[in-house]
Amino acid sequence: MEMFYYLVFGALAAIVAALELGKSGKDRVATSPAFNSFKNNYILVYSLMMSGDWLQGPYVYYLYSQYGFDKGDIGCLFIAGFGSSMLFGTIVGSLADKQGRKRACVTYCITYILSCFTKHSPQYKILMIGRVLGGIATSLLFSAFESWLVAEHNKKGFDPQWLSITFSKAIFLGNGLVAIVAGLFANFLADNMGFGPVAPFDAAACFLAIGMAIILSSWGENYGDSSDSKDLITQFKGAAKAIASDEKIALLGAIQSLFEGSMYTFVFLWTPALSPKDEEIPHGFIFATFMLSSMLGSSIASRLLARKLKVEGYMQIVFSVSAFTLFLPVVTNFLVPPSGEKGGSISLGGCLQLLGFCTFESCVGIFWPSIMKMRSQYIPEEARSTIMNFFRIPLNLFVCVVLYNVNAFPITVMFGMCSIFLFMAAILQRRLMVVSDLHRSTKAVEMAAEDEPLNP
Q1: Domain CATH code at residue 298
Q2: Any signal peptide, and if so, which residues (predicted)?
Q3: What is the distance between the alpha carbons of residues 89 and 72, in angstroms, rounded to a whole number?
Q4: DSSP state of 174
Q5: What is the rounded CA–CA span in Å between residue 48 and residue 213?
């Protein structure tokens, strides 16, 4: 069965290479040198920020276990991280609109660097502080950078369609290639060089510091609504009012929470799903395969966006496929007889699930640039960071509940729940397309009426 992993990885690599090298004129958009310089600067910074995040991932749980903490203690640390992102991260992330997005990005770097430093301490309280800081940093990572990019892109007068190029390329590199390289580099530092599980966190701090230096030296500042008359409470009320009064924004927030909640749950479930009888599986190699699948998805997304296909249309298919792939563990549990003995190589059911999980990761790769595109269209500029952090409240609450009850339900029930959520996301995406089309047609009629000359 070991050859199976190489076949899957090789096939995915060949497809990604063919898609990237075989782009035609329809798949490429003519841009300006000024935009290319701006795009490359952002992608470099975003890749450095994501490398700081990806380097830590493979060794967080292992480091805590090396310090002697059991599964329950480690679970509490993870819950603290998501809870911090939900509570403190929402407040800090929302300040970006008022205090400046560039400043918020620098705050992300400083906060995450401090979180990395706490990993040198075996004391539970210090590690808990590190998780709280990491939760705040995560909220900033997924709101401040995108908000800065959209505002700066518009301020420089670039074509709005070009945003899709930056989004898809940032995801292709930052969430794909960088993740693979970061995982291998972390393994090299910790195991091959013998520096131990803290080394990847030190490397992450270095990458974050380099990215912060580039931000400070080359980025301009931009704001949402920076008026002194608006305090944080007023800002929250304005964001809540925007969500409540505009069905498109509310639908977008619900779609994002449903998909990302299922995605984060998948992160905790894929290992026990592939090795229910303690089968020996190459975790690092499978992780790299998932990231390659994500690269495939972002490459597909770049083609779809370049051809100006309606995002609201094709994302219905993406969510439906995602729902099917996460329902596979439920199906294989009933149709494929499990292996009776413990250990050994991956089972037939595990192989089928791995193919399904790779498909799901491809859907994740399509999701990121597509949801970014929709957010740039529907979320008002003056409260962009605040609303984006509001979207993360139900997401983080959902993940905290899942983590707290992860041992209370069979794994098939958890996957079935995720599949239902993804199907709901597909239905809401359909509703979003209907509402947005109605809004566009109404706006077109109003503009036509205004342009019509008055009859004498």
Answers
A1: 1.20.1250.20
A2: 1-18
A3: 24
A4: I
A5: 11
